[in-house]
């Protein structure tokens, strides 16, 4: 069974601060996805990273895939209250059709 | 991306009863999944709903407790049987993207069904 560690589990910050969420595995991912979930909704896909060392940007969000494809990070610059939500990383492993989800990071951004 | 709807959006049920949750997709998809999620926590995969054959259940989940139907490529149901308060959770269905270049098992989720068992 693959394990996917995500940290921190909870983050409460003020508007304008920066933050980073980490996702780590002992196994190599074939791809990794980041999702955001707001209360009362299902998770929404933010990004997929595939290539080791890859960096993708989505407005104030920067996603990085480790060179060895075993870890990933999500960095948010100048967080806003609208960024509040549960952030989930999910890894796809070669040969498996399902995703392995991290435990999630609950982010609360206060005005 | 696919548009997915679930019914009901929420329900409050009595212990010992059963509830069937419906998942409808706006396009034909090969793979559909059912998850359980405690509020604010991560997702636990219950089973993969296979069209034309029995669902594939994850460890800790059994067909008698969570029977699943998948009559066609756009629809699935999950039944939570003989419910107890421990079954109170959010139940989500998801589908894998319809493929094409750049598709890497990305999943698209329904809005979820919030179940409370008294």
> Which quaternary structure do these chains form?
heterodimer
Q: Spans of chain B with pLDDT under 50 lasting ≥5 residues?
A: none
Order of helices and strands of chain B: EEEEEEEEEEE
From the helix content, strand content and strand pairing of chain A, which structural class follows? mainly beta
Sheet with most strands of chain A: 6 strands, mixed
Report the major sheet of chain B: 7 strands, mixed
Q: What is the overall number of helices of chain A?
A: 0
Q: What sort of overall outline of chain A do the alpha carbons produce when their principal axes are compared? A: globular
Strand content bin of chain B: over 45%
% residues in beta strands of chain A:
over 45%
The radius of gyration of chain B is 14 Å
Helix content of chain B: under 10%
Mean pLDDT of chain A: 93
Number of helices of chain B: 0
User: Per the principal axes of the C-alpha atoms, what is the gross shape of chain B?
Assistant: globular
Order of helices and strands of chain A: EEEEEEEEEEE
Description:
The complex is a heterodimer of chains A (111) and B (118). With 111 residues, chain A is an all-beta fold. In chain A, 0% of the residues lie in helices and 55% in strands. Chain A has no helices and eleven strands. Chain A starts with a strand and ends with a strand. Chain B has 118 residues and is mostly beta strands. At the A-B interface, β5 and β9 of A face β5, β9 and β10 of B.
What does this entry show, briefly?
Chain A is an all-beta fold. Chain A has no helices and eleven strands.
Fold topology:
The complex is a heterodimer of chains A (111) and B (118).
Chain A: E1 4-7, E2 10-14, E3 19-25, E4 31-37, E5 44-49, E6 55-58, E7 61-65, E8 71-76, E9 85-92, E10 99-101, E11 105-110
Parallel strand pairs in A: 2-11
Antiparallel strand pairs in A: 1-3, 3-8, 4-5, 4-9, 6-7, 7-8, 9-10, 9-11
Chain B: E1 4-7, E2 10-13, E3 19-25, E4 32-37, E5 43-49, E6 56-57, E7 68-72, E8 75-80, E9 89-96, E10 107-109, E11 113-117
Parallel strand pairs in B: 2-11
Antiparallel strand pairs in B: 1-3, 3-8, 4-5, 4-9, 5-6, 7-8, 9-10, 9-11
């Amino acid at each position: 069974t693959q394990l996917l560690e995500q940290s921190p589990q909870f983050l409460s910050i003020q508007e304008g601060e920066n933050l980073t969420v980490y996702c780590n595995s002992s196994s190599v991912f074939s791809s990794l996805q980041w999702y955001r979930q707001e209360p009362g909704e299902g998770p929404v896909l933010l990004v997929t990273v595939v290539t080791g060392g890859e960096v993708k940007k989505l407005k104030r969000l920067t996603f990085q895939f480790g060179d060895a494809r075993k870890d990933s990070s999500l960095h948010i610059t100048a967080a806003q209250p609208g960024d509040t939500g549960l952030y989930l990383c999910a890894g796809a492993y070669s040969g498996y059709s399902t995703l392995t989800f991290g435990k999630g990071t609950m982010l609360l951004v206060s005005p | 991306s696919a548009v997915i709807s679930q019914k009901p959006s929420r329900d409050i049920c009595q212990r010992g009863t059963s509830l069937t949750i419906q998942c409808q997709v706006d396009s034909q998809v090969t793979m559909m999944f059912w998850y359980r999620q405690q509020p604010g926590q991560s997702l636990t995969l219950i089973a993969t709903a296979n069209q034309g054959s029995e669902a594939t259940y994850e460890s800790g989940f059994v067909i008698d407790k969570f029977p699943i139907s998948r009559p066609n490529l756009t629809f699935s149901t999950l039944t939570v049987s003989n419910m107890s308060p421990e079954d109170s959770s959010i139940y989500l269905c998801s589908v894998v993207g319809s493929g094409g270049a750049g598709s890497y098992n990305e999943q698209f989720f329904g809005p979820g069904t919030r179940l409370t068992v008294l």
